[in-house]
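User: I'm putting together notes for a lab meeting next week and I want to include a structural view of one of the chains we've been expressing. I don't have a solved structure, so I'd like a prediction I can at least talk through. The sequence is below, exactly as it appears in our construct file.
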Amino acid sequence: MLLTLVSRHVGKVYLIRCKGRIVLGEEAKALEVALEGGAWEFSQLVVELSGISRLDSIGLGLLMRYAERMRRRGGDLRLAAPPQFLVDLLRMTKVSASLESYATEEEAIQSYLKERPATAAKKREGPRVLVVDESADLCVFVRAVLTQHGYDVRSSCSLRDAKTLLQVDGVEYILVGPSTPHLSAETVVQTLTALAPRAKALQLDPEFKIRDVQEASDALLQLFAADGV
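Assistant: Thanks for the context. Below is the predicted structure for the 229-residue chain, given as structure tokens.
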């Protein structure tokens, strides 16, 4: 198989970075598995294609199929950084009308973040929180607990993606987890609060990720309660 895939989520957007070929066979199957994994939880998908050397009709059909599927759920699949041969292909086949593409992955991600449906605005019930930690599992846990208590939560596993979120999306709270590789939690807090100076910065203690479920949930809610929320 001559295709490598790296996936991550940025807030409510799921991104898959591709390198190699997307063609009939193992490559297309691998991408479908990655798309299916993202579609399990997310309806807003971005496929980054700057490293793609070839895309056949099966590969393009796969992307279009998931774009249609996500739109039925109120989301979409959008392309990021397509190489010139693919830009020309999309234009010649007129598929560009069905698959939106953006010059960079940041632009593709922000295209979702800038959308503010009236229905989504009405559903917002509580303070907006950005959670930042390298562990996707920790982010999911924190997001689930806080959402159940009325918070509007998005999360990111990287500082770069968190900065992208803050460039478009204002928050009332920035919650930094204990696992931030290469950078101290204090540095992450300083970097993000510079982009959102009105946000209240909170930090999870280093022992948070090894606590049992109930203890961790209580500690998380107490952290916000201590701030008067």
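A couple of points you could mention at the meeting. The first strand starts at residue 3 and ends at 10. The chain is about 45% helix and 25% strand.

User: Perfect, that's what I needed.
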